[in-house]
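Write out the 3D structure for:
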Amino acid sequence: MGDGTLMRKRLRELLAADTMAVGPLLFDGLQAKIAQAAGFPLVYMSGAGTAAARGYPDLGLITLTEMVQNLRYIAAAVDVPVIADADTGYGNPLNVWRTVREYEDAGAAALHLEDQVFPKRCGFLAGKQVIAQAEMAAKLRAACDARRDPSLVIIGRCDALAVNGWDEVERRCRAYREAGADLIFVDGIKTRGDLETYAKRLGDLPLLYNGQLLPVAELARFPFRVNVNATILEVLFRTLQSALAELKATGTVSGVQHRSYDFINDFFAVLGLGYLRELEKRYSI
């Protein structure tokens, strides 16, 4: 559905607006369609979610091919920009160059590259390590050179907060911006104090914040261009975990009717059944 070139231009317009753009973290086409139906102007394809959907923790076990395939499904499902996790770029600057080409072809409006060593790990897990600042800057230069559509947004993610603290983070983020990153993303923001320091020390740069330490209305007072709301992953996990535990214990799930026609109609409506039925009529003999 989504036209990659158009979606990239749309994301650039969102980034240029006075208001912070908000999108949910997700990892499949159904979730993306639900987010679009709810009115979100963008969605974010999670690397941790993509790994989890394949039964793995976020420890660098998912390949470029798997990530691109998932991105292609999500970008094709919706008419809103998709920001995609591209992990470490899956290797050196040459690998990053290919990663950007693959992500662009798959429909990404933006992608972020992080400065962790490979294999990486989830930004909120202990034991992270980061590569040299100069090495990451080279990766970002390669990413910028690789894009054929100048509207593709390159995001430099810094994972050095838990490793080396704010002074190192600030030096790295300014170097990443100088290397060509369109947005800066500091990962591992865990407290309101972290959030305020992030805004104070780097607020003159275009920033992405991943989390929900404050409601959107309060976050909007901070100098963030984009907020990725990561709580949806927890909601999905906890809701399904609870429902399945109840089903195992009681033989039923409370509040759910068997084959509810309201659910079936809503479910297929979000998936575009009405549009496809119209197409079916158009081509019927």
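The radius of gyration is 20 Å.
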